[in-house]
Amino acid sequence: MANRKRIPKPNRRTNTPEIGHASPQSSSPSDNLNRLGTPPQWPRPARTIATVLILIYLLIVVIGPLANPVASKYFSGPIARQLAPAHRILFLGHGYRFFGPDPGPTHRLVYRGVKNDGSKFEGYFPDRRSQSPRLLYHRWFMLSETLFIEHANQADPRIFQNRQAEYERQAARLASEHQTHQLRQLKLERQLELRYYQRASERVDILASSVARVLLERHQASSIELFGQERSIPFPEEVADGLKLNSEQLLLPLTKVGELDANGYRAANLFDSKTAGGSKQ
């Protein structure tokens, strides 16, 4: 074979400057980072808009605990009313004060019913054994707390009627004395109190009847009764002696909330009805 001449390879050496000997044409570190994929910084208007949106969001998050349950008349209350639509849309009404500093006793809703086949059933919520994950249990827990508190805070109809009679007597006296300004103020107060009383009664009835319908459909039942039950907090000495936080000794007697059957929902009279007795779960 004839001897072939070796063709010299082209010099592929790049003009990369050596370390410590930067050339005048070398790029800056920021340019190298951009070539490696680092995104450029936002322009100033975009950063300003993002900062404002983040601050508004943080304000909405903070104003919830500040305004719940007792809001400041001159600060958190007015701000919370303005931000209420955004607060509800973002689902930020968690009620942090519910858990501290003194959470108080807990409440659960006990239900008893009759199924379509005639068999009886009983249960309660929240129940950690059947409701998981923890977030779902927490939702049922907040529902039972809201229903119990709304029912327990109802105004006594007899006291309300007595107040209305007293308002009428005062109105007659002011009218006879021609005190029109005081009479107008008295009528306004009576209307506001009547409106608050009616809304409170409607709110607890709507909430309780909705819960009763869900339970009625879930258990395929023909009738169901709802009861509220409080679990008191033990004293430190009782816990030191071995009393468990979930002990049945801490359960107070049941208080009937209402019942639902084919004739519709009927609310129980909180002030005339007797307690239904303790429940052993």
Q: Could you explain how this protein is built, in words?
A:
The protein has 281 residues and is an alpha+beta fold. It folds into two domains: 40-97, no CATH class; 104-267, no CATH class. Helix content is 46%, strand content 14%. It contains seven helices and five strands, in the order αααββαααβαββ. It has helices at residues 29-35, 44-67, 76-89, 134-152, 157-176, 180-218, 236-240, and strands at 106-115, 120-125, 221-231, 255-261, 264-267. The chain has a five-stranded antiparallel β-sheet. A hairpin with a 2-residue loop joins strand 4 (255-261) and strand 5. The radius of gyration is 34 Å and the shape is extended. The N and C termini lie far apart (102 Å).
CA-CA gap between termini: 102 Å
Classify the beta-strand content into a percent band: 5-15%
Low-confidence stretches: 16-24, 274-281
Shape: extended
Salient structural properties:
single chain; disordered C terminus
Helix and strand topology:
Elements: H1 29-35, H2 44-67, H3 76-89, E1 106-115, E2 120-125, H4 134-152, H5 157-176, H6 180-218, E3 221-231, H7 236-240, E4 255-261, E5 264-267
Helix pairs in contact: 2-3, 5-6
